[in-house]
Amino acid sequence: SKLTSLGQLEMTWRSRVHFHPLLVRVLHKSRLRYYGKPEKKLDMPYQAYFEVADGSGMMSMVLWNSLCPEWYNSIKVGTVLLLEQYAIKNSYPFKTQPTPGDSQMKRFPTIEISLNVRDPPTKISIIPEEMVKPEWGLPEVKYRFITRSELDDLPNNHSCDVIGLVTFVGRAERARKREHGEDFWLYRWAHAIDGTSDHPFILELFATSQPDVFEHIHPMTYLVCTQMRVVRDLTENPSSTIYLTTSNESQIFITGWHKGQPYTKDTKVKNFIQWTKTQREADQMKKTVIGGYYPFPRPPNNFLKY
Fold this sequence. Notes:
Pfam families: RADX. 12% of the residues lie in helices and 32% in strands. By secondary structure, the protein is mainly β.
């Protein structure tokens, strides 16, 4: 059928009611958001953002309500979608923006694709990777992997992807979302090494919408974390408190989940796998730790500073 592109949509969306089908690749995926309130009677108050792209550029796509439990787990980073009967809306100005792996990629920030059960009822089709044709011109998923030796030179809030061998994983902890609120964030600390430095990556991993992965991070697993943000304490000794934290678009993968993921083609990932083949499992096992209380960043040495 006749297709349209994201670039054409941006130019013509105000003058149309019905849009031609779209063929796009998913480049980023946000965590699932629950926006239910006691006074609002919605059956499935869920929402999830995806960044999708074709040959003309990248745009946000929003999955609403009952489409979330139906489609959220099936739509992965790298998935190719055919979208029919969707709506176009002005984009929400306060949403988080992932950092694209391809800095040359054009963005269409003013509008977003809205997928709903009705008005109009969206039809979503997943195109298997082996049926994707090169002439469709869909971009490949690109990453920004860094090694541990490169981390010390990166600025605060820099976005990156990492791979490492887990040597420590802490227990799950909770932090209040708001001072006196009832809601909590769930997170755990982990250390991962990649052989390029004496220091590990220190990772603050918030529970994303992947409970099956979050609960099974353990020492000696190969851990991949995407769209992580650099956090460095600029006041005290900057090098001692540098760590990485998850963002709204972070995805976490452990051994058993890597097969078929787009990052397996990345050079730094291949280098890491080569390094692990030179290591003896028994030697690494001796250095691993699990559980316990992990105060980080460390409190100051004396009470006056504290």
